[in-house]
Amino acid sequence: MAKRDYYDVLEVSRSASAGEIKKAYRRLALKYHPDKNPDDRDQAREKFKEVSEAYKILSDSEKRQIYDQYGHQGLEAQVGTGAGFGGFDFDPFKIFEEVFGGRDVGGGDIFSSLFGRSRRDSATRVEAGRDLQVAVDISFEEAAFGTTKKIRISRYESCQICQGSGIAPGSQPQTCPVCGGSGYVQSRQGFFSFTRACTQCQGRGSIIKNPCTQCHGTGRVRKNRQIQIKVPAGIHNGAHLRLRGEGEVGLGGGPSGDLFVVVKVRPHSIFKREGDTVIVEVPISFSLAALGGEMSVPTLEGKVKLKIPSGTQTNKIFRLRGKGIQHLNSSSRGDQWVKVIVETPVKITAEQRELLLKFDQLGRNNGQPRIKEFFKKMSGFFSGRSG
Prior knowledge:
By secondary structure, the protein is α+β, with helices and mostly antiparallel strands. The chain has 4 domains: about 1-100, Helix Hairpins (Orthogonal Bundle), CATH 1.10.287; about 105-125 and about 175-205, no CATH class; about 130-170 and about 215-265, HSP40/DNAj peptide-binding domain; about 270-385, Urease metallochaperone UreE, N-terminal domain (HSP40/DNAj peptide-binding domain, Sandwich). It contains 10 helices and 15 strands. The strands form 6 sheets. It has a 4-stranded mixed β-sheet with strand order 10-11-15-14. Strand 10 and strand 11 (about 275-285) form a beta hairpin. The longest helix has 18 residues, at about 40-60. The chain is elongated and about 105 Å long. About 25% of the residues are buried.
């Protein structure tokens, strides 16, 4: 599915100031936060991630400039140069906490005032898993008809030894003595009270005295996986496939991220594509163009016969209906255009030369109307100037 325009996501104009963008994010982030939508958490989470991604890009002057000039493709081209470009490497909940500052105007915990609960309700730090991105190369024909590919990825998965808890089997976590199990501590500066993650337990609320030897207390281990993906017929070069839940596992039972697959379609030696139309240029001889006849032309499904009428001119386009590429998510197909190019002989024999001269003399009066019409116009043009 194509990404929505970031300005449309935040419901602001393209000339919006930084302050307007932040204000729009605050409003929409509160609206779509999963904890504010317990009856439809999955859909709210997707909206929340979309809003957070849009804010991450538009709140950064460098990324916003790239986006304004080149759009989503410009950001995607920068993915390899730094985390966060294109929205494939970010935690929407961290962005939320950064923007809201972890406290409300009265000095309390922002989560208590917004969602009617406290960090003490959970002794485990919950964090969504990271989204991943990989690329897959396919042929022109595979893009036209669809295919199935196997790709390899490296990702963090839940540790099977400790079931993601990070604790050695048979052991129990101990309540953090600094934060008392809340995962957060408060400090005061003048009239304001600030809430921050506990540095002793890293926001988990508990301390692991006997960590799992497999994951070293993280609850996650890196694994190499082979995943099979289905590439739909009619897909375009540069399109993104989204595999929900195939990203990295979250922390503390948080949802897994998604896997984005960027499709790279290799160019074809014969065919070109414009939308769902296949275009092929076919050279034909001078005699076939003049006399007409039949010839074989290539299509994605093999050769077909094409009737060439007499007097065919170069660059003439013939349409083969239904021989193009299947429309994405549809059973109908585009057409194929066959563009014929009349090839002039580059080497001729003496006999051919004599015959061509005779042919030219015989055809000057009626066999080449376009040439005759051109010279008639040219004669009129110069005669008018001399008068």
